[in-house]
Amino acid sequence: MPKINLLPKEIAELIAAGEVVERPSSVIKELVENSIDAGAKNITVEIKNGGKTFMRISDDGCGIERDDIPLAVTSHATSKIKSRTDLDAIATLGFRGEALASVCAVSKVDILTKTAEEDVGTAFSVAGGVCAPAEDAGCPDGTTIVIRELFYNTPARMKFLKKDVSEANFAASVIDKIAIAYPGIAFKFIRDGRQTLSTSGNGDMLSAVYSVYGREFAESLVKVSYSLDGIGVEGYVSSPLHSRGSRGMQLFYINNRLISNRTAVAALEEAYKNSIMIGKFPACVLNISAPYESIDVNVHPAKTEVRFADERRIFNAVHYAVKNAIDTAPARPAVSIDTAPVRPQPVFGEQTSLNTQHIKITHIGTPGSAPLVINSPKTDSESACEHADIPVFTDVISVNPTPDSGSVPQPQTIDFLSDEPLPEVRRNVDEKTAVVPDFRVVGEVFRTYILVECEDKLLVIDKHAAHERMLFEKMKAHGRSTHQQMLLKPVIVTLSKEEYSALIASVTELSAAGFDIKDFGDGSVKISACPAALGECDITAVITEIAGKLLNSSRDISTDSLERIYSTVACKAAVKAGQYTSDYERDRFVAELLSSNEIRFCPHGRPVITELSRHELEKQFKRIV
User: Does 186 lie in the same domain as 132?
Assistant: First the structure.
């Protein structure tokens, strides 16, 4: 164990001071970093009640000599800094000598420790900064620190802590990120008596990522290994096909220290430019190796912000490392071909025998939604939608049985927004009574903008923006009666612990929006149902985007949270620019849009309709002056 020294005043003043104990997770971060600096190969963290009442950090590191223990709980006492020049090249995670002293000042702490050279261990207790005499204790080499009743003597600070589950998630997030940075250390995390994390310590970063975030996330990653101008970049990034709805899964480390750095984020996202959709974000786990003297970690109490001597070198190294990796990643989703025998397909539009039968295809919402019910009488879904004033459109098509079977073949799902026109059908639609101005749909340009002649004006409608606002207003109006569809198979979505906490905190609002979400534990949620408007949308992408927006929101008001959820669902469910819509669908869509004077902007503030008067048009063609 390196000797602990009390820093001289002139050196202590050079260290960026600050209170490091904000909540249980900050205690765990500081003490686990001490364990890593002590050379531990096995670290176990246990908490109860979110860490408010109990935390225990155990390691098999070098331990603390008995004579040094009183110094270890004193401010500005550390074994990692001895002179002014040491601050110019900090190679350890800890260096300030503040963490343990700060913890001991606001909690009841028991320390059990033993070095390899000592025959017997030491037990040492501190409560509110008051130390008890050291005693002999039987314990293995290493250190165990138990913290009880955090902030027991500062109740004003206790009231700023969140619920137990939120504090526990913060703590879990800290362990997750440190475990990924140090795959050569075996980490265990025990939460209220249940082990929720165990890493192997085999030195493989991908194995640690798998243990923390699960198989699906690990399998979406592409390996990165690159160096440029003395800067090394190692780790993993998501393939362009697996982008996410937020930056919650972007982890950057500098010399294995977790950091928050805009330069690295900008370099990462610039590398993905033109490779992923606008509004989507890549995920990454990247460790940047740089000379210790070229970075300054002594700028913030939390030690997550760093300064680089040359930001351009860091940007270039990260950018080219990521670019090189994703250029070799699969660029297109794989397609599997079903080699089963081809069954005869139904013939549309023919009526050559008395055996002709009819198939009813129902789609719920505005024209353009995918069919949800096939070949059935009026369903509970339709009844519920009619009750909630959500349009239900029905098409009836005639089909013949196949000659050899004498039975009606399995109907194909018709995509009402496919690239091909709809087959000829006999429509049976109950029109809604609404006040709609006289209009004529002229056509559609770029499969994005609908042109409408209406009351001496030419209207240009952005069909995605308009449909998005229509869905948004319906969900706001109907609230908990929003129609819901059960998923054939529940979807498990893995999130960062921060996104997970934000989502779990908004389960009530998500339920009101039509989701059935259950806490699946360890940063995952189970989705069993979703708003019917989402149709065949990627539920994982929707949930990830909602979680990111909830996390990034600065306000915690339920109505705001609910509207953010509605906005995301509406955007995902709305017809997309470039998708085909039939003449019939455009007529119904425009009729519903023009029947409401409120629908003039999408939830993001973009206009849904622009207009050009006949007078203005004739002026352009010099018909009038």
Answer: yes
Rounded Cα–Cα distance for residues 558 and 567 (Å) = 14
In-domain check, residue 37: yes
3-state secondary structure 266-289: HHHHHHCCCCCCCCCECCEEEEEE
By the 10 Å C-beta count (0-12 exposed, 13-18 middle, 19+ buried), 567 is classed as: buried
Q: CA angle, corner 621, sides to 620 and 625, nearest 5? A: 70
Strands 373-374 and 609-613: unpaired
Reported for 96-100, long-range contacts at CB under 8 A and 24+ positions apart, including other chains, are 96/15, 96/16, 96/17, 96/20, 97/7, 97/12, 98/17, 98/20, 99/20, 99/21, 99/27, 99/30, 99/31, 99/33, 99/34, 100/30, 100/31, 100/34, 100/72, 100/73, 100/145
Q: Which of 340, 355, 569 is nearest to 467 (CA)?
A: 569
**Are 40 and 181 in the same domain?**
yes
Span 322-340, pLDDT tens digits = 999 988 776 555 544 444 4
Among 310, 326, 342, residue at a domain's last position:
326
Output the domain CATH number for residue 258: 3.30.230.10
Burial 132-143 (b: 16+ CB within 10 A, else e): eebeebebebbb
In a domain, 624, yes or no: no
Tally of CB atoms within 10 A around 329 = 17
Segment (H or E) for 559:
helix 558-573
Identify whether 193 is part of a domain: yes
Task: Please say if the pLDDT value at position 501 is more than 70.
Answer: yes
The domain containing residue 401 runs over which residues?
357-427
140, 122 Cβ separation under 8 angstroms: no
Residues 6+ apart with CB under 8 A from 44: 56, 57, 58, 59, 187, 188, 189, 190
Tokens encoding 259: 């950091």
Secondary structure of residue 225 in the 3-state scheme = strand
Do 187 and 260 fall within a single domain? no
CB within 8 Å of 306: residues ≥ 6 apart:
254, 257, 259, 261, 295, 296, 297, 299
Q: Are residues 239 and 378 in the same domain?
A: no
Number of H helices and E strands in the chain, helices first, is 18, 29
Strand runs (DSSP E) across 24-137, as ranges? 42-48, 54-59, 77-78, 108-114, 121-127, 130-131, 135-137
Are 146 and 199 within one domain? yes
Same domain, 185 and 136: yes
| Joined tokens for residue 351 | 């009526």
Q: Which two tokens stand for residue 255?
A: 């010399």
Name the domain count of the chain. 4
List pLDDT tens digits, range 48-81.
Answer: 999 999 999 999 999 999 988 888 888 766 665 5
Distances (CA, A) of 620 to 243, 457, 614, 616, 624: 46, 14, 10, 6, 9
Indicate if the pLDDT at residue 437 is higher than 70. Answer: yes
Closest CA to 559 of 483, 500, 508, 498: 508
What mean pLDDT, rounded, does the chain reach? Answer: 77
Please report, for residues 454, 470, 575, 604, 608, the alpha-carbon distance to residue 598 in angstroms, rounded to integers and kept in the order given: 17, 9, 19, 15, 11
Which pTM does this prediction carry? 0.66
The pLDDT assigned to 341 comes to: 47
